[in-house]
Amino acid sequence: MTITVGVIGVGAIGQDHVHRLSHVLSGARVGAVTDVDLDRARVVADGLAGPVLHRSGAELIADDRVDAVVVTSWGPTHEEYVLACVAAGKQVFCEKPLATTREAAERIVEAETATGRRLVMVGFMRRFDAQYRAMKEVVTGGEIGLPLLMHAAHRNPSVPDFFTSDMIVTDTAVHDIDVARWLFDEEIAAVTVLRPRTSRKAKAGFDDPLLVLLETEGGVLVDVEASVNAGFGYDIRGEVVGEDGTVELSESAGTVVKRAGTHAGRVPAHWRERFGPAFDAELQAWVDAVAAGGTTGPSAWDGYAATVVCETGLAALRSGAREPVVLPDRPDLYKGPA
Ligand code: NAD
Ligand code: NAI
Ligand code: ISE
């Protein structure tokens, strides 16, 4: 069975997802596209075998020829499209963040739970990355004993001008927040955000890097160095410290060159390079699940919890204090293994 997917928002990652759905993955075709920038959507549509060009996201979601929807527009627009998909009973893959405020994410969780079935998957692709999956197997398999700590770093080479210090938490560290919840299978209970001396490469008024400290309910402490002007490459690091050993992500370049007394390897240039195979795996898993009549992977609850932790992180950035995370009980729809 081939599912027909409609894509809303065909910027950087939207075009990547259109390409992988059309040329890399199996079981799906892109049958409709739209973007608030219609000219951009037209260019994307012209490069494909006859998808419908819609004038709005609402129109695309209402199109009976569209079986399921991928939302890759800007974060603040996600809520509207995800809610419309849930109301239409259509499966939706939404890039992170699920929504940009606690209230918006809550509305999505409420709408989905009211239908009694999962319709939403959130694009936390690290859960599909081979290295993170191997790390989770070691942690949950008990090989290093009880996990105590995690050290993480999320370094972007640079960011566009519209990027703000707040986005280091909400757009960048949001991935590390999801990883911590998923790896340890616990909610985050508190957040502290510390500011070291600012990089000379950060624009005026910008705090970069940030050190985000997450405490899980069970007492695992996760320190995340998040920086967006690292310059040298896209560098993602993680090490879990357990009672009996440690597990860490290895360098992601395929080879190490040793010559003339040196030891060298490549640092990925972009998230596209570091996580390409993870993006392929997450969308293939979604396509397969949709074809089988359901969904998989990170849920609306995962997106909601991440947004709440991010909001708490922003409060911590402003106050300089440790801020507790307040979450309601997890609805039954979202209970069970991650
Ligand atoms: P982008 O700016 O390149 O693309 C966004 C596109 O959405 C643009 O083409 C814009 O015109 C369109 N758009 C904006 N508002 C819209 C609306 N109301 N209706 C329809 N289209 C609209 O951004 P991007 O880098 O592709 O990021 C898009 C999303 O993907 C963001 O949510 C971002 O957080 C996420 N993202 C995730 C990852 C990841 O690693 N998982 C990486 C990059 C981006
Ligand atoms: P982008 O700016 O390149 O693309 C966004 C597109 O959405 C643009 O073409 C824009 O015109 C369009 N758009 C904006 N508002 C819209 C609306 N209301 N209706 C329809 N289209 C609209 O942004 P980018 O980098 O592609 O990011 C898009 C989303 O993907 C973001 O949520 C971002 O967080 C996420 N993302 C996730 C990544 C990941 O690692 N999982 C990596 C990069 C982005
Ligand atoms: C981007 O939107 C992503 O999601 C990337 O994974 C992240 O590394 C980057 O900081 C974000 O801007």
From TrEMBL:
GO molecular function per UniProt: inositol 2-dehydrogenase (NAD+) activity; nucleotide binding
Alphabetized UniProt keyword annotations: NAD, Oxidoreductase
Its EC number(s): 1.1.1.18
The reaction(s) this protein catalyses: myo-inositol + NAD(+) = scyllo-inosose + NADH + H(+)
Domain Gfo/Idh/MocA-like oxidoreductase N-terminal, first and last residues per copy: 3-124
Annotated signal sequence range: none
Family: Belongs to the Gfo/Idh/MocA family.
Record note on quaternary structure: Homotetramer.
PANTHER family: INOSITOL 2-DEHYDROGENASE, PTHR43593
Protein name per Swiss-Prot or TrEMBL: Inositol 2-dehydrogenase
UniProt source species: Pseudonocardia hydrocarbonoxydans
Gene: iolG
